[in-house]
Every structure is written in structure tokens, then in C-alpha cells.
Design goal:
This protein is α/β, with parallel strands linked by helices. It contains 10 helices and 18 strands. It is globular.
């Protein structure tokens, strides 16, 4: 099979012929229809964040496709079935899995990190983890549900505990932030989208934002948002991974409010401990998504509560996959999510 191989940091992916894997007991071989091109992969390529499996390896953790071959003992799938594969596989037996926090499984395995991923024609997966993808959803575009939609869903619904009628602010309207906008809107919140790119703010409006703020045009974002909401938002989300925007997101919440950090940064962030204590404010992290939530997300997409097609703005064959990463590096204001199509 053909695959885009990660050779190491600061090197482009290299398309090669590699052996097609054979499914073992309890596994399925999936013919990849598409795989989302994610910033996480760019952290490995551009920033030297180490993968658990040492290169050379295959990146890509947002796959959709069809079942191509069944391993021994697999009787819940048949060849040709449409499937979505979650970005992270869980063990189901560790303490966190047992208490319903599978997304922080002690033994988690991530495609394109611990094991070979889906920037390839085929990918192996445990049969127990694959999810049915309904015929009503597009096979290729739905690949982004695996991470770009499921991650903000978990952040909004579980970690942010957003309810209908809440005021929320979402900092950063990239792929993850834009999906946080539409998930928060879908559950009935009033959403303020914050970014510095006018084009992205316009897209956020189309995806359900009730108001937008260009942070580059205001002196104090917290004053603006507190005036708009009568004291601050119930929940703010930071989807960039920048110490400054984490501080800004925290500064915009009301007394008793909550800030959810979705974006990754390895830098330290200073926050006012006095406010956290005296105003009973919270700051929480959010990682990935629990397996139990995927059927709900897929159903929301199937009935149109969450848009999928509109979020995919570019498609690249394996031979062009490095152009997909260039598109992210260049911060095209119209680019939300790109997918690789083997």
C-alpha cells in the first residue's frame, strides 16, 4: 500500500510503498477514505514533539473508511461496512476507563503516535473501537468527526457543562474553535466568537455565533465581553494554546464561571489565584473525547445539528499531503480543515 511516512522532525512526509498490514484476532483492516490533517501532526513535524513510536512511522489520527478485511473472531462487522475510527483507543480496564474518563485512559493508544496512523491506503484498528458511519453522512468529510469535532464536543458538553441559555466565549476560530462554536450553538448557548481574522469571524457567524469580537480591534477584551454579557460569560474556551489568550479567556468569565483550555501549550500561564478562590471560578483542561460520546456526535451530524461538509475546505491526495501542512502554516483565513484522501 502507499503511505505518507514521517521520517522525523523538520522533514516533509515521504510517500512510499509499504506492506499492507494484516488484521490479527479482534482487528479489522480499514480501507481509508479520508483522514483529517491536524495541527497535532504538525507539532510532530515542525516542533519536534516526540511520538511514542519512533520514526519512521505513519501519522494521521482522523480516519474514516470501509472495512476491507476481518481478523479472527470479528463477527460484528462485514467487509464494505462504513466506519469512523476514533483518534484515541482506550483499554477499558484502567482506573480512568472504569470511572468513565476513557479519554484520559492510562493505557491510551493514539493513531499516528503510538501506532501507525491513517495517512495511508489502509489502517489497522481494533474491531471494538470502530463506529458505524450512517449512509446519510459523506464518507470522506465525516473523517473530521474523529477529532476535530469530537474534541470540542467533549470540551463544550462534558468539561464546560454548557447548557441551553448559557453565554459562552470561544477564543480562536480555527478548526477546533470553529467546531466548538457550532457545538455550543447546537446545545442552545449564546456564543461569542473571538479571533483576529475577520474572515474567520464571518464563518463563525454562519456556524451559529450570535456575536463576534475582533480582539485586535479592542483594548480590553474582558471589558468588551463583560459589557456584552452583563458581567461575563458562564464558560469561556481557549482553542489556540497561547498563554495570553488563556489569560484573556479567564478574564472574561463571570463570578462562578469556568474556563476550558482545549489548546496545547508547553509554556507556563499566570492566573490570579485570588479570583479563582474568592469568585469560585474554575479553569479546567479538556483532552480528546470519550468513546461513549461518539454515537451522539455522529447522530447530531446525521440530523444536521452539526455541519460536516462546510468545515472541510481543502482536499489533498497523498502525493500532495505536504501542501496540506503548508496551508496550515500559511494560516489561510478561509482554511478550516483539510483532509487527505489516499
Amino acid at each position: 500500500m502507499r503511505a505518507a511516512i514521517f521520517l522525523g522532525a523538520h522533514q516533509p512526509l515521504e510517500v512510499r510503498e509499504v506492506p499492507t498490514p494484516t488484521p490479527g484476532p479482534g482487528e479489522i483492516l480499514v480501507k481509508v477514505a479520508a483522514c483529517g490533517i491536524c495541527h497535532t501532526d504538525m507539532h510532530y513535524i515542525d516542533h519536534g514533539v516526540p511520538t511514542f513510536k519512533k520514526p519512521p512511522m505513519i501519522l494521521g489520527h482522523e480516519p474514516s473508511g470501509t472495512v476491507a478485511e476481518l481478523g479472527q473472531g470479528v463477527d460484528n462487522w462485514k467487509e464494505g461496512d462504513r466506519v469512523l475510527l476514533p483518534a484515541v483507543l482506550t483499554c477499558g480496564t484502567c482506573y480512568n476507563c472504569r470511572i468513565g474518563k476513557e479519554n484520559i485512559c492510562d493505557n491510551m493508544v493514539m493513531f499516528g503516535n503510538h501506532v501507525d496512523g491513517a495517512y495511508a491506503e489502509y489502517v489497522l484498528a481494533p474491531a471494538k473501537d470502530a463506529l458505524v458511519l450512517p449512509d446519510e453522512l459523506p464518507l470522506e468529510e465525516s473523517s473530521i468527526i474523529a477529532d476535530a469535532i469530537s474534541t470540542p464536543y467533549h470540551a463544550v458538553v462534558n468539561r464546560g457543562a454548557v447548557k441551553a441559555g448559557y453565554n459562552v466565549a470561544i477564543f480562536g476560530c480555527g478548526g477546533v474553535g470553529m467546531n466548538a462554536v457550532q457545538v455550543a450553538a447546537a446545545v442552545g448557548a449564546s456564543v461569542i466568537a473571538v479571533d483576529v481574522v475577520p474572515e474567520k469571524l464571518e464563518i463563525a457567524k454562519k456556524l451559529g455565533a450570535t456575536a463576534v469580537v475582533n480582539a485586535s480591534e479592542v483594548e480590553r477584551i474582558d471589558k468588551v465581553i463583560k459589557k456584552m454579557t452583563g458581567g461575563g460569560v458562564d464558560v469561556s474556551f481557549e482553542a489556540i494554546g497561547n498563554p495570553t489568550t488563556i489569560q484573556q479567556a479567564f478574564s472574561c468569565i463571570r463570578k462562578g464561571g469556568r474556563t476550558v483550555v482545549i489548546g496545547y501549550t508547553d509554556k507556563k500561564v499566570e492566573l490570579p489565584a485570588a479570583k479563582i478562590m474568592f469568585f469560585e471560578q474554575e479553569i479546567v483542561g479538556s483532552l480528546g473525547c470519550r468513546p461513549v460520546d461518539y454515537p451522539r456526535i455522529i447522530e447530531m451530524a446525521r440530523i444536521g445539528k452539526i455541519k460536516v461538509n462546510d468545515l472541510v475546505t481543502a482536499r489533498f491526495g497523498l502525493d500532495e499531503i505536504n501542501k496540506g501542512f503548508d496551508l496550515m502554516r500559511n494560516s489561510d483565513p478561509h482554511a478550516l480543515r483539510s483532509i487527505a484522501i489516499p
